[in-house]
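S.,

Sequence below, as promised.
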Amino acid sequence: MPESISSEYLSATASGSKWERLKMLKRAGVSIPLFSVYSKNTLGIGDLEDLKAIVDWCSQTGNSILQLMPINEMGVLFCPYDSISSFSLEPAYLYLRGIPQAKNRKIALQIDKLKNSFPCGRASIDFNIKKEKLRLLREIYRLGIGPKLPEFNKFKEENAYWLLDFSLYKVLKEYYKGLPWYDWEEKFRDRHEAMLQDFQEEHKEEISFVEWVQWLIFTQLKEAKKYAKDKGVLIKGDLPILVSRDSADVWQHPEFFKLDFVAGAPSDMYCAKGQRWGMPPYNWQRIAQDGYKFLKERLRFAQEFYDILRIDHVVGLFRIWSIPYQESLESKGLNGFFEPRDEKLWGEQGKKILSVMLDNTNMLLCAEDLGVIPQVCKDTLKELGIPGSDVQRWTKDWKVKHDFLAPKEYRPLSVAMLSTHDTTNWPAWRENEAGTVDEALFIRKCNDRKIYYSQVKDKLFNPALSFHARLRWLKSIDSVDKLVSILGKKKEELMDFIEMYENSYQEKEKLWLHLGINGPMREKCDPEILHAALKISLDSSSVFCINSIIDYLYLGGIFKGDPYQYRINTPGTINSKNWSLTLPISLEELLRHTVNKEIRSLITESGRI
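The prediction came back faster than expected:
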């Protein structure tokens, strides 16, 4: 490892024991949404048995880390980061044929029928598969074998903190035909104990069914982890920073949340109005008064499955963008503020929460520290030995050179990557976004300065190279003075415009030089270009390099057409395309594909095998 992140340094941090358990090796990994994969046995959506084939692929290609998105049970939007519980696991991921009772002839025939009704390999997922799986699971449950097993009772005892309340929530939600808990009758909304006990007695079979399903998923996920361990692959989980307002957690512990607000993000160059996520921020003072038990229990449950845990939006532990609940939906994240309001409290709060986490888990913690991150957050992560995230498109000198950092300049204590689940894949970014600014953001800034966008647009941007609401600068705008002249305001009034310009003008051309490819720049991405980009991330100083399966598979020409269509999620939007992308290749085909040799060669040459 580089001297700046020696094994001696890591051993001395609060994460030291976790690093020692993982042998302090530089590793390569892959991030794969479980819902996106499928095999010949898959029923409509990637399942926990498919994890074993993914592990085999990791082993074949030299990836020793498999990163998953959250597999908590999702709500009506099927968003992994907007779950209905911080604990419960998603029933859609169950491998039905792996349940012993599924050998019953009647059940087996229904599974076959279900497979024909929900074929895999289509462009996106039909989430009705969850409803059908649960219907069939109820039939299996009525066979009456599983609920009597001692392992099931042990599972209930060990997860008493959350399991019964979650099951009550689920049954009550069905009782109220899907209404959120805050619209239930007062006796259940406000958790009147006697009324809940009566309801529990009257619906004990339905409650037991929910608990049984959770036990099945728990068991299969544990089996997948053991399989990965035997193959030398570490599983990296994902801890969502927030939970849905309509969730079992908020119903069980409303005092742990600030329900007069919703969390989000301020505007930036990729989201002109910022983001309104809809989930309530935590009331950390009340959680602390309870000894952080809620947080400790989440970690205890997660470490049953994961060796490493990604903390989503880690800066939210220090301060979080809070928007009044009654604020107009149209304004998204514009009218919010950072909580705590006093910036001096951010460091103390973040370090305390992270320290509690480190003291109560054996998992190595990693942090998603993207966006505008206060220095105190970066300093705390380094002090505690927690890697951050270095995404190639943003790993730049933003102030002086306005250019990409060399591989050796990446933070050693980081996870390098080309893209994330919230960004375009790397080929789509290079073709459509590199060298551009967001049109909506540019318009809003023009309006703020009383600049007529319609009058300056064609003088600044090339319409032939502007796609997907991204504006590509004309080559002729080759100085700040020209930009200022066209915008027609004093330079002092245009500093945000100038910053946008300096960090995006000729960015694609700078990237071409950064990649080190001979010949004139090519507009479209191709395997040679992507190979060079992957090599930079793998050759970086970062202790881990975890790339998306989509970016890896573009090497093999597996994805066709405009890469912009292959997006996992578009932040700040709600649509059927989010969280439903399916890979255009089965796991059986993937395991035989020639691209695997190229991936392994890249990883081997980087010294990450």
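DSSP finds 25 helices and 16 strands in the chain.

Coffee later?
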